[in-house]
Design a protein that fits this description.
Blueprint (H helix, E strand, L loop, with lengths): L1 E6 L29 E5 L4 E4 L5 H5 L9 E3 L5 H4 L14 E5 L1 H10 L15 E5 L6 E3 L2 E10 L2 E8 L2 E3 L19 E5 L12 H11 L3 E5 L8 H6 L5 E3 L5 E4 L5 E3 L1
Parallel strand pairs: 3-4, 4-5, 5-6, 10-11, 11-12, 12-13
Antiparallel strand pairs: 1-2, 1-14, 2-3, 7-8, 8-9, 9-10, 14-15
Length: 261
Amino acid sequence: MRVVFLGTGTSCGVPTIGCQCYTCSSTDPHDKRLRCSALIETEQTRLLIDCGPDFRQQIMPQPFRKIDGILITHAHYDHMGGMDDIRPYCQFGEINVYADPIARRGMLEMLPYCFAEHRYPGVPAIQLHEIHKHEVFSIGDLNIVPFQVMHHDLPILGYRIGPLVYITDMKTIDESEIPYIEGCDTLVVNALRQKPHHSHQTLDEAVAFARRIGARQTWLIHSSHDIGRHAEVNASLPANIQLAYDGQVIILKTKKTSKLM
């Protein structure tokens, strides 16, 4: 399984517009963070997790081939705002999009012209599937287990896909969800900044969560400019808990081994 971090930033991206802070003024490309999204690929199947407003820019360097499914974590714009840009992929057929009831409703409101009775030519052809936590489903050769985390008071979805667990925008998680995560090889989870935030984990909270889950490797995403510079933050972290970066590729083996490319 090949995982590409298309974007690892928060809703404002890094650098943030108009900001000249220490992180935003960095010339290190690892400190340039687009909105959060990831590609999950096997030889048979290609999935996209979230499709934010930077999707066009993120996908251009990638090979142009069919996207078999888009997994939506929640209905905020930085995770769904690029859906109109999937139009070129509709030449392969309808795009299957998977969302919980709240995110499904948000998509219908955001893209009403895609679901109208009489659609004008050229709009994205979307087949919208409603999914629910703990109900396993398959896309191609991948089995997907949705589970629930809390984005402050908004329930949203994380996904377990084989050896991978992907979580973004989490503040808390109910104890009953932990069994769906335990035993994973690779954990991807959000770490917004150093200071407390009402709806996102801090860096320390993300590290504590990673240690609790005990994955072999944890990659931290959805990071703002307030977290600091990539190289300096990673130097302060354990080798098995690190900030991910845009364009990073990891290869996961199904037998709980993986390597970084």
